[in-house]
Amino acid sequence: MYQKYLFITLLLMTGSLFSQSKGITSFEENGLFGFKDKKGKVIIKPQYEQAMEFSKSSVAFVVSKNKWICIDTKNNFLLESFLYDNGPDYIVESLARYVEEGKMGFHNERCQKVIEAQYDFAYPFENGYAIVCNGCELQPEGEHKRIVGGKYGIINKKGKIVLPIEYEAIGSIDAKRRTAEVKKDGKSVKAKLK
């Protein structure tokens, strides 16, 4: 009987550890955002320009010095998100883009870096592949930006280069046939993915 109650107590304690972020909510004070626990105790003092709520993965995106960053419930900086649609990049196929020292890589929903930031630009994943480029630049075009110049290639979700970064452009990717429409030396051709 004692073991049964001990097991239930341990189960409840373990459950409360995993659901810590569920009771955390953002609040605003003097134009800055912070976070309180479910009892109303301040756990992260107001210091952010904007704040999104903590996710089930116990991370939140906040704005610090005009950049969207990801923090954990202890207010540790995890990474800087790529800015997309005036907010942090969307998670697509379990990954989103982040920026580090001017380069782009990919992180998971827990803001853990999965693919090292080593590209000048990276498109979101689609059907298991992402187009990346080096030597390219984001140029302002009205309120948006477009990518110009550079050489393009393709990576898979493990970060492996499956098409070398040597093409002028990549049109479409056929994931089933493992081919891509590419442009090299001014000509459009099909290239086989590794």
TrEMBL record:
It holds the Pfam family WG_beta_rep. Keywords: Signal. Residues 1-21 form the signal peptide. The keyword Lipoprotein does not apply. The keyword DNA repair does not apply. PANTHER family: DUF3298 DOMAIN-CONTAINING PROTEIN (PTHR37841:SF1), GLR2918 PROTEIN (PTHR37841). This is WG repeat-containing protein. It comes from Leptospira ellinghausenii.
